[in-house]
């Protein structure tokens, strides 16, 4: 964490503006940036920007705002409709690049208008080892990725979050809902909403990592393998709930939860 704080100190006077989802990665990033601003005696608070979009659960936005303010940052919510870009709506393989380009241009505009000139976001080293076309858009925008620059993995970040007493230390990752559909399957907001409701319900049952992937007409449920017995004990209840959400065929993926399995 000290290395991360030291990373930010030279940029405090530029004004630090970051994309802030409220997840564990961006929470550690924001905590470090706020500590750096305090250590440098800056009277310019860190600006945390949260995107309210069609592809991200709205409940996360409220949680992000509360957390940002508790850390001493200014917080701003920017509403963006990714589906206004017809290219994103078709769900191509480079959707993440197109979406990140849209989001980070909005971040730059918001920060510059408020007098901020150092921009960053929360990708970590693990993100560089899988298919993440959005990283190209981030670099093209001139936005920094301090967790990558400092060589931090997700495991490192969760440890820092726990040591710092952040409420997000054990929060499961919640990537955008686009990852629930195969590439080239056009987005349907009503379908994405049903998938989100199903995931929230399963988490409320006590499942930690949850993804509902939809391969029409099959709903494929990914959970941690250690939770398979718990799932089977409640499978009738789970099937009924999913069918009430208008999913016809319900399957449990025997490979278990895998981040990026659609790739």
What's the architecture of the largest domain, going by CATH?
Answer: 3-Layer(aba) Sandwich
What is the beta-strand fraction? 5-15%
Order of strands, widest sheet:
3-2-1-4
- How many strand units? 7
Share of helix among residues? 40-55%
| Computed CA radius of gyration, to the nearest angstrom | 19 Å
Distance between the termini: 32 Å
The rough form would be described as: globular
The CATH homologous superfamily of the largest domain: HUPs
Q: Estimate the mean pLDDT confidence.
A: 94
Number of helices: 11
* Sheet having the most strands: 4 strands, parallel
Q: Which structural class best describes the helix and strand composition?
A: alpha/beta
CATH topology of the largest domain: Rossmann fold
Order of helices and strands: HEHEHEHHEHHHHEEHHE
How many structural domains?
A: 2
**Oligomeric state, counting identical vs distinct chains:** single chain
Q: Using the coordinates above, name the CATH class of the largest domain.
A: Alpha Beta
Please characterize this protein's 3D structure.
- With 263 residues, the chain is an alpha/beta fold.
- It has 2 domains: 2-163, 3-Layer(aba) Sandwich (Rossmann fold); 188-252.
- The protein contains 11 helices and 7 strands.
- The chain has helices at residues 2-8, 24-39, 58-70, 86-89, 95-113, 134-140, 146-149, 154-163, 189-204, 228-233, 235-244, and strands spanning 16-19, 47-53, 74-80, 118-120, 210-215, 218-223, 249-252.
- The chain has a 4-stranded parallel β-sheet with strand order 3-2-1-4, with helices on both faces. Strands 5-6-7 form a 3-stranded mixed β-sheet.
- Helix 1 (2-8) crosses helix 2 (24-39) and helix 2 crosses helix 8 (154-163).
């Amino acid at each position: 964490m000290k290395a991360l704080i030291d990373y930010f100190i030279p940029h405090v006077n530029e004004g630090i503006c970051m994309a802030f989802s409220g997840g564990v990665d961006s929470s550690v990033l924001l905590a470090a940036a706020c500590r750096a601003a305090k250590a440098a005696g800056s009277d310019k608070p860190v600006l945390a920007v949260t995107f309210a979009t069609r592809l991200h659960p709205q409940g996360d936005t409220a949680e992000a705002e509360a957390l940002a303010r508790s850390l001493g940052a200014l917080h701003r919510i920017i509403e963006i409709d990714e589906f206004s870009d017809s290219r994103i709506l078709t769900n191509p393989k480079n959707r993440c690049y197109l979406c990140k380009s849209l989001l980070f241009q909005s971040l730059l505009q918001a920060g510059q208008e408020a007098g901020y000139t150092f921009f960053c976001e929360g990708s970590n080293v693990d993100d560089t080892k899988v298919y993440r076309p959005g990283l190209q858009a981030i670099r093209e925008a001139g936005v920094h990725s301090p967790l990558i620059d400092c060589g931090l993995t997700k495991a490192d970040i969760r440890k820092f979050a726990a040591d710092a007493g952040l409420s997000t230390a054990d929060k499961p990752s919640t990537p955008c809902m686009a990852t629930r559909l195969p590439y080239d399957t056009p987005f349907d907001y009503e379908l994405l909403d049903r998938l989100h409701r199903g995931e929230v319900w399963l988490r409320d049952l006590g499942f930690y990592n949850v993804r509902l992937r939809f391969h029409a007409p099959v709903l494929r449920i990914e959970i941690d393998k250690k939770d398979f017995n718990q799932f089977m004990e409640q499978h009738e209840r789970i099937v009924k709930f999913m069918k009430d959400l208008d999913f016809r065929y319900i399957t449990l993926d025997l490979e278990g939860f895998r981040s990026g399995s659609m790739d």
